[in-house]
Known about the structure:
The protein has three domains: 19-262, no CATH class; 264-335 and 383-405, no CATH class; 337-380, no CATH class. Helices cover 49% and strands 11% of the residues. The protein contains 18 helices and ten strands. It has helices at residues 34-44, 46-58, 70-79, 81-90, 129-138, 148-155, 162-178, 181-187, 219-239, 251-257, 266-277, 282-287, 293-301, 303-315, 320-332, 342-351, 372-380, 384-396; strands spanning 19-22, 62-66, 93-99, 101-105, 110-114, 157-161, 205-207, 241-245, 355-356, 360-361.
Amino acid sequence: MPPEDAATDAPKELPWPPARLAADLWAVFNFGDPNDRYRKFLSRGRPSIKQLLESLLLHPQTFIPTEDYLSLSVLVGTLGERPVLDMLESGRVKFARLRGSLAYVGNGGGLHFYEIGGSEQPNPHCAPVEEAIAWALSGLQIPLRDPALARLALQATQEVTGTSIDDSIRHETYMDVLKSPYLRNQFSLRNKDMNHLAGIGPKGIRIYGGPDVPATGDEIDTVLVLGMANIELRLADVVGAADLATASPVGHMLRAKVERAVDRDAAESFGELREIADIPDVGEAILARNSSVGDVLKLAASSDGTAFREWFHNNCRKDTVATARAYSELLKEIPGVQSVPAKVLRFLVTTGIGLIPGAGAIAGPAATALDSFVLERLVQGGSPKYFIEHLSQLAARGHKTDSGC
Length: 405
């Protein structure tokens, strides 16, 4: 992989289906009490956690931005240790770690990244990854039983240092203001110099502390919000994410700036598909302990899950009409092998006879070793239709809980 700050004119080739940056799960660092930050995030974070659970089905990988891994604490505290271990072990959930935080500095400093503490005991938001993870997990009120959690979180981390993107984020943010007639007019009320905005003392420093911290709404706050939006875009680019969920106050600007092949947000498209296909809310089922993360991951990794993701991103991302049309066509599809009676199929498999129309070659020396599970998969194959049926059954059934929650 090229260096994180390397410039290139060629567009990055993204995986398909696309990865997702779940910036709505970013418990942004601020100077306040981390326990208070944790509680405030929990008070509004349920929809974001539900979207994360759905993204296990819709995306090959979901990256959660973080500075001090408080988001990891939120996941363990909400879902339990075992489900988070399952998500990390599957490779479907990862962390995009920003080392350092964005601030506006007085006395002409302007927009810059900053760190707190010396080299011996840095603050968790700028500490080495291992130390930041240990700090986050040590604050949990529940005992952790598996030491692999910290190791898996470390392995699932892709880090970007603030110093490596400092100049580019500052330039991009200032250009957003200077190229916008509306914002430029607002800024001209008091100051035209982006490094000397009014509202901060010579030795002052102001940060964007996330959506839970009240803001004054002046020029400096506007620059910080735009700066964080550009950081989200940079992190999405680094990890190869084409889908972006954000809690930023300028989320509409993010959607306008992202020049990708996808059209609508995947969560919005999947929400419509759930209504059209009458699929129960799998995220709500997991949070209510009526379904397990392990079962969702198993379904996501199946051939049906792979087929569904390809079908969904190719057919359901345009608009409601396209989604409804695609689902109607899907209902008409019957794999060729399904038309062969199971009794005949078993005879052909176990006796080593040739081909089955629509299924290809299945006979051979190992044919007699195929068990009933393999036979069932031959009957079904990888199909978005079967995925939807399995998902509906999974989300609808009750009384199944994750062990260790």
